[in-house]
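From the pipeline queue, job 12 of 40. The input is one protein chain; the requested action is below.

Action: predict structure.
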Amino acid sequence: MKKLFCTLLAAALCLLSASCSLFLPQGRVNEHNARLTVRFLDVGQGDSILLESGDEFVLIDAGERDYGDEVLAYIESCGADELKYMIATHPHSDHIGGLRTVLDGIDVEHFISAETDCETYTWLKVLRAVDQQRIPSVEARAGSTYSFGNASFTILAPLYDYDEDYNNASIVIKVTCGFISFLLTGDAERKSEYDMLEAGENLSADVLKCGHHGSSSSTSDKLLKAVNPSFAVVSCGKGNDYGHPHRETVRKLKALGCPMLRTDEMGTVTAYTDGVTLSFSSEKQDLSAYTYTVGDPKNSPDALNYIGNKNSRVFHFSDCGGVQSMSERNKVTFENRGDAVKAGYSPCAICKP
């Protein structure tokens, strides 16, 4: 009997330990508990970034034309059957070459680009596909904010007409989810960086996608000081002819104590965040050590607040897209999730509070 009792007690303790572990903080965010996932795709010497939040997707560039099928397949592997937004940062082929293939393979709700007089064959093919599919085309304007799922992005640049200086004409966006943000700079160089700084743009971000594949013509000292990133990502091809990332950029980031995550070394780099904690993974290297949590102890998921809709009796995270379309008179604020549930409100199926 004593042996049987000990066996049952041990089994009970194991079950209790297993069930309790479900409620213990894991210290990392992954695809299961992320409210925003940012994927820096390995497209060789090019750029392509896929944002995902609340089952809504945003694609920024798609590398050279040869990567179009690969980017499309990757998007579909993430479970996307449409893109809420497609952003073409600027008309250089290493950024927009693959967009035509993606446009032909998946529905796109909105196409965002900056006004340009570029008439290259590759760029005109992209514009023709957008027109033929009757996709609403939006001109990038600094200060405009767009929401998707539990996140949003604000266009910071271009601020001026840079004529045929297409790198500085790149669309720069700041993506935000809760207290975590990403600054995605396309190929923007010093001129655009200084213009944003002079305009008083809020450039601070936890993750910086270095401009122009880590070229010394971008990621200036002034920009780094304003952004003060905890991590930097460089999208470039292995053994590329340009020597990207340049030694100057590597040296600056090392001096700042900012880890550099490179697609040429790590493959596709993925960032996950719940709005407070930031974690990374990659195809080729273990990035489990790269975890960051906003320092202020009051910054917890509950600090984001929960907003309920009096009509639908559904509650959301305060930064959910559903809250932005809600009238003020229908809003009710809860300090924590438990209060919302006790009041008879159901969680939003998109932001999953």
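Job complete. The two ends are 47 Å apart (CA to CA).
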